[in-house]
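S1.2 Input.
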Amino acid sequence: MKIQRMSKFFLVLTVLCSIWLFLPETVQAANPKEIDLQPNKVYKNYDLTGNGKKDRIKIKTSNSTDSTVTIIINGKKQAVYKNVNNITARLYTLQNGKPFLYFWLEEEDWEGPVCGVFQYKSGKLKQVIDCKNFFGKKQKYGYSVHASELRAEGNDLEIEYWLMSYTMGGMSCRYRFEYKNGSLRRNNSQTSAVKVSSTIMTALKNIKIYASPNRKKALYTLKSGQKIIVTGAYVKSGNFSLKVKNLSTGKCGWLKCLKKFPSAKLFKEVVYTG
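S1.3 Output.
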């Protein structure tokens, strides 16, 4: 009886191993956490949907003067962009196996037709995060807006946004997007991960500081010559405000960001480029 049981055990084990060995290759697709995608190369070994099957992607460029870029997935044209001078394309895969594509197609001075995160689903490529217009459309709070860094962490995608702000000059702020309800969703409108052109900024004029980022109630007036540090940012529904701390009084509040290039800069340390 003992020998019979052992024989049955090894028989079942042999059958299971045989099934595993002869499974179709399509269910073996596994993406790295991050991979750069080069133009005019066909990639066949990555899963773009998260269903375990391998897909084909090619970022095709033209030889004409307009530098046209065509994104082709599984033989189907998904998007066409013109006037592109530089291409950054990357595939990110979260811990749960969900993949997302990042495209930054530059024209000049960090501008260009697209900068964003895309999801390939039901045979279509859809933009789920618009990095180019994160702070508002048509250069609402600054120019040269783009994602300067992306990083997959667990089931989140962390994005650092950079812009030449009318208020602070070159600056960046970092936000986290979590995988929720089948796609990526920003988990907060506020962030403390902010970098500006100088650690300490000196006011060149009197500036109103508000009690909250909705900017409805003035808290106090920052006097010309007083110094501040930037401790946070708020981005939501076209509202971009910065949280600041007055080093003279210790008071914290919210600074309303400028929506156009100023005739005179607000802070001594601000430098505009580009």
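S1.4 Remarks. The longest strand covers residues 142-153.
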